[in-house]
Each structure stands twice: as C-alpha cells, then as structure tokens.
Amino acid sequence: MSDVNELDRSARWRRLLAELVSTVVLVLTFQGAAYAQGVETVTYSKDVAPILQENCQQCHQEGAIGPFALVDYEDARRAARRIKDRVTQRLMPPWHLNPHLGIQEYKNDRSLTEQEIVTIIDWVDAGTPRGDPADLPAPVEFPSGENFLMLGELGSPDLVIKTDPFDVPAHGNDQWWRPRVATGLTQDRYVRAVEVLPSYPLGRGVTHHFLATAVQEESVGGLLTEWALGKVGEQYQEGTGKLLQAGSEISFEVHYYPNGTPAPADQVSLGIWLYPEGYEPEFPTVLRMFNVAPQSVLEIPPHSTPMYEREWVMQSPVRIQSFQAHFHLRGKGASMEAIYPDGRRELLSIIDNFQFNWHNNYIYEDHVAPLLPSGTVLKFNMWYDNTEDQLSNPHPDDFVTWGDRAADEMGHMWIGVTNLTEDAYLRLVRERARIATEDGGSR
Ligand code: HEC
C-alpha cells in the first residue's frame, strides 16, 4: 500500500466531506433566516423543551453521563451557545454517521432532524425566549444509571454476570482486568439481548472499554459483546440470537482508565436476556471483527491523515445487522461498501465524524439491513487524522503505531453478521420486494 495514494485518497474524502458540511450549513442558515423573519417566534416552552426532552435528557440530567443537566429553562439558557455549537456540528446528540450518504434507517437513531436543528439555532439566535410555561410538555421519568437501560423494554435480565472486583486507582496508566466467570447455565440457551452496565456511580467514569467472550465448544464460542463508552447494548432481531451453552464461561477484558477518583472493588455487570427454554432461532448471529488496519500495517506519521482499505469476500449469503468502528484518539471515519457479484456498488454506511468518547453501535432497521448474496465483496475504509484539526488528538507530533493504549491506534470494525442459507436468502429478498411493492401501492 503506498502512502502517497493513501494521503491522496483521504484528502479527496476530506474535500468531499467539507463540501457536504458546507452545503448543510448553507441550507440550515437559509432556512433559519426565513424562519426568523416571520411567522412565529420559537420559544423554549413550546419548541425547544420537547426536543431536549426527547433527545438530550436521558444523558443530560443529574447523575447521568452528560456533564450538565438540560432539564429546565435555566439549564438550557445557560448552555445555549454550546448547545447551538454542538448540534450544528452534529456532535450532539452523539451520532456520527453522515446524514446524507448510505442507509439512514437505524433502530437506535438518536440524531436530530434538520428541522430540529434549525429550531434550536433559531431559538438561540432569537435570544433564548422562554415563551409561555403553559406550553411546556409534561416532564419525563428516566431510569437511573443504576439500572440496565433495556430494563424498561425487556424487564430484568435473565442472567447478570459480574466481573471479579478490581481496585481502580485514582491515577496512573490504563489498566486491564481479565477475569473469567461461569455463566451457571445448565442447559443450552439462545441469547436475545445483552447489555453492559458499569458500576454506578464510580465505575461509569473509568470503564473505558469492555469485551465479553463466551468460552464454550470451539465451533460456537466467540465474542458475545464488545462495549465502549457510550454504547447501550445489543438486541437481536426476531428469529436471530446467539448460543450460550450449558457449562459455558464468560471471559472478560475490562479496560479501565483512571480519572482522578479511585473506584475500589469495581465490578462491571453483563446483563443477558435469554429466549425461552427450547427456543431455537432460525438465524444464529455472530459478532465478527474485520481488522482493517492490523498491527502489521498501521503507521500514522506526525501530521498525516492516512487511510486503510481492506476487502472480504462473503462465502455465503449474509444479512448485516449492525456495525461499530473501533479506533482510539486519531480515528476520524469509516465506511462500509458492498460490491455485488454483478459489479454494482453500494455505499452502505459512512461514519464521517468519529468521536473517541462514543463507540456508537449502529443497528439497521429490519427492512433495510443489507442482504448480501454469496460472493459479495464487503469493502471497508478507515481513516485517521493525526493533525491539530482532530480535537481529541493529544500530540500531532507523535509517530503513532498499533497498540492497546488510548495513545496508540487500532482500526477494526465489529459487524453483527447473520449467515444465511441460499434458500433463506432468496426468501428474505422476495419478502422484502413484496413489502416494498405493498408499501409503494398503498401510498
Ligand atoms: C447518550 C448521551 C447523550 C445524549 C443523548 C446527549 N448528550 Fe450531550 N453530552 C454527553 C456527554 C457524555 C458529554 C461530554 C463528553 C462529550 O462532549 O462527548 C456531552 C457534551 C455535551 C455538550 C458540551 C458540553 C461542554 O461543556 O462543552 C453540549 C453542549 C451537549 N452535550 C448538548 C447536548 C444536547 C443539546 C443534546 C440533545 C440534542 C445532547 N447533548 C444529547 C452525553 C449526551
């Protein structure tokens, strides 16, 4: 792989992205101006509070992970400039996909619509008018950080497996903790959903990254979940699931990052929701790692913006359920493209604004989850920014190579993959075509 080529390509990408961003900003500014001249004043009570309630408060409230609360008018007024800044750049809510390219329908989408962004901008530019408190929506009750987020939807997990206690010091280097814990299962069961819960409140600030691997028979073992700051959990589609065998164990890898406050005897909990006894999903799913920038090739010179590219040929038909990019501080973006056996190319998704704090897992809506025939090439690009433009970059002068520490780099994708038989693939394609026609006809 030639460096010049890489730099070249990544420069092209960046130009493309810059153009996109400026188009969006232009459109927004234009709409904003039209709004401000006219019809109706945007107020906190009527227009802004519902947006904050629905899209921000789960994290921005007392005891949650956001750095300040956004619960009442005073909170929002005080943070108004910063809010405008973050939502305009699409840094908040944390959702870092390109909003125009690739598939846009995700189960866990938490991005704002362009109209919502415009409303916030107008409100800040109009001097944060409060409006009539009678217009305020009723307050929302949120689960505390002590509980699994999926509790509301799925009830308590069937299994909660805790890591052995570990003393996280107040200061020092990254720490790795690798305990192995029995699941206690006496029968084979299929997993429907998993969620990782750092201890509350102290563990939340220091649990950086977490892997849980099922230790069982070779052929079915493997990664159960990969979690990093900001990720909620994984829930499988109806009819899909992962096997956990009787007598299995979970091998954990917890990456702690001391933050100034010690977290004594810290334990991370893994919540597992099971399908009923005896249930066998039609489509067992695996979380597969695609190592786009492995140790043998990853080199990031000072002030460079390299990109890596790698392809895999699908050996059977597959359905892609979800994806997540794993980088450290220099990670900038990642794309996933399908090259079908007939030569057609499709950009499936593109993360163009990766933020190290947020290893978002993007879960496709059922009706758009890519269905790829056998022989499809899945092509990944992952790119880095080791310049001062990258806000998270601690030292643009460093020569960065592959490694575990946050100051080193990595570059891989975690993809939720369901392997399909030829028959199942054809059936799913036909079902989707039928639904598309019915939808088309009814509109
Ligand atoms: C999933 C949790 C989550 C959601 C949802 C979320 N935030 Fe945040 N927000 C955070 C965290 C954590 C930080 C601090 C780390 C960071 O900046 O990434 C933050 C930082 C910010 C900051 C910067 C604070 C500073 O001091 O500069 C602003 C402004 C902000 N959020 C506004 C919002 C707004 C407005 C929304 C909704 C439209 C929102 N956030 C939704 C978790 C969240």
Characterise the protein shown here.
There is one protein chain. With 443 residues, this protein is α+β, with helices and mostly antiparallel strands. The protein has 3 domains: 3-135, no CATH class; 145-281, Jelly Rolls, CATH 2.60.120; 283-443, Jelly Rolls (Sandwich). It is 22% helix and 29% strand. It is built from 7 helices and 23 strands. It has helices at residues 3-37, 44-55, 73-78, 80-88, 114-125, 151-154, 422-442, and strands at 159-162, 166-168, 175-177, 180-182, 189-197, 207-215, 222-228, 234-235, 240-244, 249-256, 263-266, 269-274, 283-291, 299-300, 307-313, 318-326, 331-339, 345-351, 362-363, 371-372, 377-384, 400-401, 412-419. The strands form 5 sheets. Strands 1, 5, 8, 9, 12, 13, 16, 19, 20 and 23 form a 10-stranded mixed β-sheet that branches. Strands 3, 4, 6, 7 and 10 form a 5-stranded antiparallel β-sheet that branches. It has a 4-stranded antiparallel β-sheet with strand order 15-21-17-18, covered by helices on one side. A hairpin with a 5-residue loop joins strand 17 and strand 18 (345-351). The longest helix is centred in the N-terminal third of the chain and has 35 residues, at 3-37. It is globular, with a radius of gyration of 23 Å. It starts with a helix and ends with a helix. The relative contact order is 0.14. The protein binds heme C (HEC).
> Mind describing the biggest β-sheet?
10 strands, mixed
Order of helices and strands: HHHHHHEEEEEEEEEEEEEEEEEEEEEEEH
Number of E-type strands: 23
Small-molecule binders here are: heme C
Fraction of residues in helix: 10-25%
CATH architecture descriptor name of the largest domain: Sandwich
Share of β-strand residues: 25-35%
Instruction: Supply Rg.
Output: 23 Å
The CATH class label of the largest domain is Mainly Beta
The averaged pLDDT comes out at: 86
Which structural category do the helix and sheet elements fall into? alpha+beta
Judging from the principal axes of the Cα atoms, what is the shape? globular
How many separate helices? 7
Unreliable stretches, pLDDT < 50, 5 or more residues? Answer: 1-7, 26-38
What's the number of structural domains? 3
